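Try this one yourself first.
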């Protein structure tokens, strides 16, 4: 399907510079542009590609000042990155959706299946499970007994959702993720460890996306809760009884220990580690590989372990790199001082 620059501009409230009838049918990175493709420029580091790209249309920010002639048709918008996201969402929504239950799927007669649902080969739907309208369950997915899932969810291959868990509408879970496995609960005794049964569930609210091979553990009692709009990257671990606030995002390899409360609109970089039984306030940003051993108040941007503000952190790191030399200097000064004392 083709779209003209005029049609695209109308959809994203942009302004065309060039041929408004220029047509595209695909997307391409600006450095890999090709005729018939639309690209975008939002990072200034890629500006030089604008003057040489072969893409037919390029989205640019309103305030970009051109330094050379551009052959592509331009569409100026307030935010090129947000605009291309809208176009990609439109493109994705226009892809044909699978429907129907594959004859190789195992669906309990006690399950409730909504309209326009797709269930792929070798998927298993347990007793009492509820699958909402328009949901797609890909091959080899296991939906446990009593799981309730809303409309328009997208569950990719090899996902396992344990018994009793609840998913809202428009939830996406990528391949290999596990929702509702037992929390890590063991009580030490003289012979080893007694397992503490994990009898709670996981609740995932609307518009949550969970990356591949991510684990969200069921609670000991009550529920582990992922509130609406949360986005978890691949390989994230959310432990039992954790609560993650609305619209919080976590990059790959983040680990949240048990019973911690994470606020809304937080951003955690890759490999952030958060201790258990603490509270992270709203709008807290933690840089990559930060470790949070204690609670953090709202509206802070921090980095390091324990987390500190960026400027003191980088100053500290500069000093840390000099510690070996400083130690040698200190040892030499101490030796010199001892010699002076001895010669008195």
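Now uncover the answer:
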């Amino acid at each position: 399907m083709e779209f003209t620059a005029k049609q695209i501009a109308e959809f994203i409230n942009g302004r065309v510079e060039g041929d408004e009838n220029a047509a595209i049918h695909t997307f391409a990175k600006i450095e890999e542009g090709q005729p018939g493709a639309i690209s975008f420029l939002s990072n200034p580091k890629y500006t030089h590609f604008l003057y040489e790209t072969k893409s037919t249309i390029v989205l640019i920010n309103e305030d970009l000042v051109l330094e050379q002639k551009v052959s592509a048709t331009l569409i100026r918008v307030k935010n090129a990155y947000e605009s291309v996201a809208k176009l990609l969402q439109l493109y994705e929504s226009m892809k044909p959706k699978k429907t129907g239950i594959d004859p190789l799927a195992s669906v309990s007669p006690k399950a409730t299946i909504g309209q326009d649902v797709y269930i792929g080969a070798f998927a298993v739907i347990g007793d009492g499970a509820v699958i909402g309208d328009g949901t797609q369950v890909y091959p080899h997915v296991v939906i446990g007994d009593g799981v309730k899932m809303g409309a328009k969810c997208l569950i990719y291959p090899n996902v396992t959702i344990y018994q009793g868990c609840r998913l809202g509408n428009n939830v996406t879970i990528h391949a290999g993720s596990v929702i509702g496995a037992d929390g890590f609960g063991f009580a030490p005794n003289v012979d080893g460890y007694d397992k503490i049964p994990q009898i709670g569930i996981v609740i995932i609210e609307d518009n949550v996306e969970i990356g591949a091979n991510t684990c969200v553990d069921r609670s000991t009692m009550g529920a582990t809760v992922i509130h609406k709009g949360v986005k978890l990257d691949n390989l994230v671990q959310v432990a039992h009884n954790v609560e993650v606030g609305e619209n919080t995002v976590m990059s790959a390899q983040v680990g949240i220990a048990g019973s911690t409360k994470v606020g809304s609109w937080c951003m955690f970089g890759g490999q952030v580690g958060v201790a258990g039984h603490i509270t992270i306030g709203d709008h807290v940003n933690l840089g990559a590989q930060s470790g949070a051993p204690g609670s953090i108040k709202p509206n802070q941007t921090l980095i390091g372990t324990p987390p500190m503000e960026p400027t003191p952190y980088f100053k500290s790191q500069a000093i840390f790199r000099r510690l070996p030399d400083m130690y040698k200097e200190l040892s030499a000064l101490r030796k010199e001082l001892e010699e002076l004392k001895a010669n008195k």
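Discussion: The first helix runs from residue 5 to 12. The chain is about 15% helix and 30% strand.
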